[in-house]
Fold these 4 entries.
Entry 1:
Amino acid sequence: MALAQECLKDVFKTAFGVDLDIGLVVVLQTAGRPGTYNPHLHILLSSGGITPENKWHHISYIPYEILHRKWQFHLLRFIRTHLPSSPQVKSDIDEAWRQFPKGFVAHVQKGKVPPGGKGVAKYLAKYVVSPPISVRRIEDYNGKEVRYWYRDHKTGTIQRETIPALKFVGRMVQHILPKGFQRIRYYGFHGNVRYLTMLEKIQTMLPKKHPSDTGGYRVKPRKKFRELYMKTYGKDPFKCPDCGNIMELESIWHPQYGLIIDMMYCKNFEDTG
């Protein structure tokens, strides 16, 4: 994930001859559509960068031929540097250069940068809080095998797959990231330390009059659990099924961590000051 910023800065310097300070949001996705292990990165990139002269340089086109080769160079150099040196590693890296003379990115088409990144942002917002395969895609389980469907990325058609139950479980759990691992990371002037300061600085650099981005993705406030439950099931989850009164939260208990929230303690503390 850290190579994303280094690679793209190198791409822009090679293509446009200027060293730009850019902002990136990098999202790691490990699952392919069938649920198999297919690690890859989604990158939301600023539509420009800051030059050494503190001027905004707009980026309207990404030279994908350069991007392919630069990503190959940075990734293979990273592997060579961080993996233990061995004849097998050296052989694999050499083979990667020979097998992919045009670079590593295989499914990026030429064209202008999509305005606002609406489709990608919406997809990623949904992905980071969802499992590799939703329950509705599981069609059958007979105690030994699981049958589920997915939409093939290349053909756009519905494909079905039946695999042993343990293999299915294995496909799912391999996407559980290590504890503390951050799936979403911020680089450049999108970094948490610089973001607020750079936001004010960039706003002074941008043209005072510029067309509104109708294709931009806007994050709407998420509805609360109670609203979502009532909309889905048509009943209030806070309503007691016995007396009909609205229930109040008293405590939350976890089998590993014990008592997490004790509202009675909070109320007593407030009463006693």
Note: The first strand starts at residue 23 and ends at 31.
Entry 2:
Amino acid sequence: MPRVGDDVTLAPRIRPFTSVTEFAAASHASAFLLWEFPGFLPGSSEPLLHISRPDTVSIMRRPGVKGHRGQFFADEVVSHHGLLITSRTRTWLDCSRKMSVEELTVVADHLLRVPRPDFESRSEPYATREDLEDMLDRHKGTPGIRKARLALDLARVGSDSAPETRLRLALEDAGLPEPLLNVPTELHAGVVRQPDLSYPERKVAVEYDGEGHSETAQIVRDIAREEDFVRAGWILVRISKRHMQNEARLAVAKVRRTLLSRGWSQHD
């Protein structure tokens, strides 16, 4: 479902307020949208523009603007396409008050993710675990910081999407073992696959099939992928959006059945 402001019109609408008003930057829900963060932030669909200023100056009061004040270190406000905006890590912390631990973990995984240079225009993650830890240490006592700390403890490097993070968290919450994330796995000589989640010791792979998997060419690739796993003695568990409904109960049940069929025990 599209979010209000989650488009090319947000930056032009917010830029005048950050340009003509001293010490002002896009923040909170507006920064969340401008950085294109995954996850659900309550209130991000509202048309209000969120702008922060240092606590040494007055809060911004303008029609259509939600003003914020806070303490800012020099590296916590950056220029993004010519627009002053709170940094990714600061935005993550600022939004923690309204977000759930799960959704904060989704964003943390997004920030920690190591990109694939062959497909992306960057080679470094948006943030390291140390960057996020430093942000939390700088602003002790900030509303929502306890949730942010819990989320950082749950965050892992390797998740490629929000559904993958939510699936991992659902499996762990249900008492299933923590899976490996997007680890290249040699199935045969010269045949390497990289499952979204995997349990190599049980030869169980788990894939989340998003909307793009309904395209004809992708269906062909998915069949070939599954055949590779089967030939190597693996079981490939395919999860769809339907399985993720109702707190991912169907997804958890499907993975649990497969692990049990491979000799896993809840007491392992």
Note: The first strand starts at residue 25 and ends at 26.
Entry 3:
Amino acid sequence: MMNFKTVVEEYLDTPTTRKMQTKSETAHRRLNEMCKAWGEIPLDEISDKHVRDFFRGVKKKRLAGGTYNTYVTYYRALMNFGMDELNLIRYVPKVKSMPEHRRNEFLEPEEAKRLLEELDPIRRDLASMCLLTGLRKTNATNLKIDQVSKCGSFIKLPGVLMKNGSPLEVTLNDAAKAVVKRRLDMVKAQEQRYPYLRGKIEHLFVQDSGNRKLNGRPITQMCNDTWRNAVERAGLPRGTCVHHMRHTFASWHKRQGTDPDVIRQLGGWESMRSMEQYSHVTAPEVKIAAGNIDNII
């Protein structure tokens, strides 16, 4: 009988059913955590108690409901893969999802300003880039210098890096151009300060901590204690994360009257339906229409 770790490896090597893409970074992270608990256990010996104990530990992290549910999603996907595709098991121990208490998942301009003021420089620039362009966190943190156009006016992301599999050209407004220029200047300064990095820095948002092992490397953890403490100091709700910047990007555009299809193209959403999940503000024309019957009664 294959153990849990072996099944995970096979599952992660299998392209997604819907779009034949590689499994997401989140899938890798969540399943690797499960491997630490169950890796050597044969799949058919994963019991209800194993599952209860693991998810009890996840709950102790006090994660938002949506984040907790990503563990549930990938646990179920993996176990169903073992049952339906590999025919290794006939029973999958049950686990319940948590309620997701949705709030308006976008920031008002004053909230965004407060957050940016509280963040450390690299997280401030990354959050700004996500707010200004709608980039997903992984696309921003892994952004390479050669993906920025020579003129500095746009970014080109290949389809293999995109959730929908389609390449995306991101137009940079003046504020985003300023962020890019600042980071490029910082990269040059870092290469001058640390000769061993000359010609070796590939990414735009890289660390400069004085630690030889970290210098010149992209940041790997955005939403750590540094982020959470900044969120608290800014007076924002617990659970405010980098992904809210993408929601904010779409919502601000909608509020300013940007055509919905243009918002979809700017943010690289595959469909209008998927884009609308990210825009939480009534468009100006809808507000005007609502006032059309103000004086009828």
Note: The first strand starts at residue 154 and ends at 157.
Entry 4:
Amino acid sequence: MSEDSSEAGRLLAESDLSGAAVAAAPSLLHLAAELHTARGNPALWRGTLRAVRDQMQCDGIFNLAADAPLGPDDLAALAGRVTHCATYGNDCGNGSAACQTHCASFAVHMHTAAYAVRKTLQAGLFEHLAPTWVVYRSGQVQEANLSARALLQDGEYVKVVSSKLELAGVGGGRVLRNALFKLNQPMRLAWQGLSGQPMSLLLRALPDSSYVALTALLDAPGPLVQAPLLAQQLGITRRQSELAAHLLADHTVADAARAMGISRHTANEHLAGLQQRTGTVDRKTLLALLRRASQG
């Protein structure tokens, strides 16, 4: 028996069919297995649902229009309507308890098939993202896509120690653990690789707040590249230009301070000096000026 058929059989057994419903169980099991095997193919899903419609002699919910969409979300929504009809409808199978039981049972398979396809689509998308990890708040790695695993092998920016993700370099493990522990909204964590090349991690808490997604951002010009250009354009000091480059990369002052190896107080002093040299009175005006300067 295939894995899909076994899953269908397990769900069918848990649905507590009885009487006349049991007599039709083999047919229902076959259709449920077809639903799982279809793997999100709308044409196969439609064919299976038409077979259910014919078996149940149902001219209502299962009678889909030819142009009606039928993706995973559509199948799940349809399953909800089937469950409601089987539970509360007075005309389900002309009031037949067996038909109502069949429909309620099959709706479970519809939900399960939709969920399986949705997870498959998400997994496929995950593999094509920029280097991304899913970790516990402790930093313990749960998932890593192909590009993330390649970045780990390179060893320039990140490493795994005792199954926990760390930033490469002195203090990288502590910095990342602190960020994960305090995270309550999306943030960017600036860092430098072992050779001094800049990078940043985008941290996002997942719906289950025990997990965090971390995505490495390496493509944009880093602060070390932007800083000399800003210094030349604006006539500011080297450290002011470094801070300006971090702000331009959407890093917070705290992120910039960590990347520059200075205290938050010192970073604020550089910020005040930067605003005085550029004649800007607030952060918004300063960022607008920096963007114009970075474009030459």
Note: Residues 97-126 form the longest helix (30 residues).
